[in-house]
Specification:
This is Large ribosomal subunit protein uL10. Belongs to the universal ribosomal protein uL10 family. It holds the Pfam family Ribosomal_L10. 61% of the residues lie in helices and 16% in strands. The protein is of the alpha+beta class. The chain has two domains: 125 residues, 2-Layer Sandwich (Alpha-Beta Plaits), CATH 3.30.70; 47 residues. Strands 2-3-1-4-5 form a five-stranded antiparallel beta sheet, sandwiched between helices. Strand 4 and strand 5 form a beta hairpin. The mean pLDDT is 84.
């Protein structure tokens, strides 16, 4: 690779690192081209899965402040650049690794913080953003209903008390 090609490759990797919401590193040794193609399709629209030269990837990671990724950029490494929902990409990688033991989750980065292989698996265990938002909305709706019931209880209780007093007075008057 000529020096100008290397500079261009590093610049492209820097852009990918900057544009990504999360970066997940995997070792793909032993996977066939067909399996890699299947994995890329499984990742969908919000992630790109690319094999990069480790030296160039280390330089790009260092330039964007992800120095900690350098220790895992050894051996045959492929990088999943995730834009959007990182949970879905982590789930896809985890599930693919279960079916294909040759794929090994190494580490990753999300919001500038390091994720270990275990951290990537924990990320994959989370529910999707939509599910979490729906659960939060359900909790808020329940709390609003409870508050409405509490606010309504006082006037209802007062009306019942007044009616009971009125009936008692009418009973005594008669």
């Amino acid at each position: 690779m000529a020096k100008s090609d290397k500079v261009a490759a590093v610049a492209e990797l820097v852009e990918r690192f900057r544009a990504a919401d999360a970066v997940l590193l995997t070792e793909y040794r032993g996977l066939t081209v067909g399996q890699l193609k299947q994995l890329r399709r499984g990742l969908g629209e919000n992630a790109t899965y690319a094999v990069a030269k480790n030296t160039l990837a280390r330089l790009a990671a260092k330039e964007v402040g992800l120095d900690f990724l350098a220790e895992d950029l050894k051996g045959p490494t492929a990088i999943a650049f995730v834009s959007g929902e990182p949970v879905e990409a982590a789930k896809t990688l985890r599930d693919f690794a279960k079916d294909n033991p040759a794929l090994v989750l190494k580490s990753g980065a999300m919001d500038g913080a390091q994720l270990s292989a275990e951290g990537v698996k924990k990320l994959a265990d989370l529910e999707s953003r939509e599910v979490l938002l729906a659960k939060a909305a359900g909790v808020l709706k329940a709390k609003i209903g409870q508050a409405a019931f509490a606010f309504n209880a006082l006037p209802v209780k007062a009306v019942r008390t007044i009616d009971a007093l009125r009936e008692k007075q009418q009973g005594e008057a008669a």
